[in-house]
# Entry
Amino acid sequence: MVDIRKMIRSFSYAFEGVVALFRYENNARFHLIAAFGVVLLGMVLGLERFEWALVAIVVGAVWAAEAFNTAIEKLCDLVSPDYHPQIKAAKDLAAAGVMITSVVAVVVGAIVFGGKLWCWFLNM
Ligand SMILES: Nc1ncnc2c1ncn2[C@@H]1O[C@H](COP(=O)(O)OP(=O)(O)OP(=O)(O)O)[C@@H](O)[C@H]1O
# Structure
């Protein structure tokens, strides 16, 4: 049987994680502000439903990658505060995850917004 109270408790811990991510992590704050900018631009340019769905997927992917990266960084700092080549590999790989999702987000943004921005400038 599903334990609803346990699920609600898990959600509240996850919510604490979301708050900590955007409150204390500089890169996550940057991605939050960037997402607000993208949503504003999307409203100005009048994105289609399908385009909003694409934007939501890539924004969520970047935020999730940032959360995993932060979690790995914190674990690494606890396990090995001193220099260790495996910690370097773990942190660099976690950061690579953020970079890959961010590059994909920029590519999707260019595809979704590029044409619309071009038309908008031509009509100015
Ligand atoms: N204990 C360590 N051992 C080996 N290399 C490390 C160690 N700590 C950090 N590094 C190297 O330094 C890089 C930056 O690590 P750091 O923990 O400062 O992350 P950051 O990207 O600056 O994030 P933040 O600013 O959120 O702390 C890592 O990607 C890794 O290459």
Residues 73, 80, 83-84, 87-88, 91-92, 95 surround adenosine-5'-triphosphate (CB under 6 Å).
